[in-house]
Amino acid sequence: MPGLGTSFGRGGATTAQQDLANADCILIQGSSMAEAHPVGFRWVMKAKERGATIIHVDPRFSRTSALADIWAPIRAGSDIAFLGGLVRHIIENNLFFRDYIVHYTNASCILRDDYRDPEDDGDGYFSGWKEDRRAYEMQSWQYKGDRLSFPERDFTLQDRQCVFQKLKRHFARYTPEIVEKVCGIPPPVFQKVADALVRASGPDKTAAICYAVGWTQHSKGVQIIRTASILQLLLGNIGRPGGGILALRGHASIQGSTDIPTLYDILPGYLAMPRAEKEQTLQQYLDVHTTRPGSGRLHPTHRPVVELPELFPQLDESVLRQARDCGK
Fold first, then answer.
1. Domains in the chain: how many in total?
2. Cβ of 69: how many Cβ atoms within 10 Å?
3. Do both 290 and 146 map to the same domain?
4. Helices (H), 30-159
5. Tens of pLDDT along 282-295?
């Protein structure tokens, strides 16, 4: 959830399963969708009938691999290196959807002058690291400009402090040779996957990514999903028919209760249910639930709706403090 929430504002899938039928390419990674999500997989097959390219990246050859056009065997846990290689390939070869990322992403936003990433100083740390507390102070991570919602921008994407240039330097390490060394995927297979994704992305085509617990159960699952989000944004595949990132969960439980949704406290699109006593008008609702752009905070829907003291009034403060610490 944090990977998608940080990228798009909400921690749920950016598309519905039925929309996969409109995709020109579908990358399935961290999932054997044909076996674990057979009902949703019918829309993948609908796309294939329309001529879409199906890619399965997985250590194991499964039923999903058998139905895919491309199977790329990967070492378990090396997903970030593989996705990072795709990001580097797209940036270095100028294959990104320029009009999309300039106008619909923060690629052109300029970061503060005092912001530094590991590539700037070569010490492996971002700016704001406090060794005594083993934590970051993130003031320097903000955009340059007087108002957070209207940062300074460089629409040429050439400014050294713009997000695009920071991204380019960060992913420069993921060369095809590194991908082969870390992931075990030969360069010709990697190139085949990259070409298929690029061909199916742009002004008149879209590609989708599907993942399941093969990503989320990793200790670095958030970073894997964040990298996939960056990849899809570079290709212009978010918010368009057939594009997006689909998080696959249990059909009848998690997926059914949140995507339809049947839970009592959310509306379709992961919108919080209005509270009668505090949100009687649309403006009141927006004031409570709208997150400022660039604030780096999760949407209020992704935070606990009820505080621990309300749930367990009989517990003393020391027990509640321990429970909060565990939750962090």
1. 3
2. 14
3. no
4. 33-36, 38-49, 63-67, 79-92, 98-104, 118-121
5. 999 988 887 665 55
Q: How far apart are CA 278 and CA 247, in angstroms?
A: 32
Q: Which of 201, 196, 198 is nearest to 243 (CA)?
A: 201
| pLDDT tens, residue by residue, 186-195 | 999 999 999 9
Provide CB contacts within 8 A for 12, sequence distance 6+: 1, 4, 247, 258, 259, 270
The pair phi, psi for residue 202, each rounded to 5°, is 145, -165
Evaluate whether residue 77 is within a structural domain.
yes
Residue carrying structure tokens 């209760």 = 257
Q: Scan for tokens 């940080």, then name that residue.
A: 6
Nearest CA among 228, 195, 28 for reference residue 95: 195
Residues 65 and 180 in one domain: yes
With a CB cutoff of 8 Å and minimum separation 6, the contacts of 254 are: none
pTM above 0.85, yes or no: no
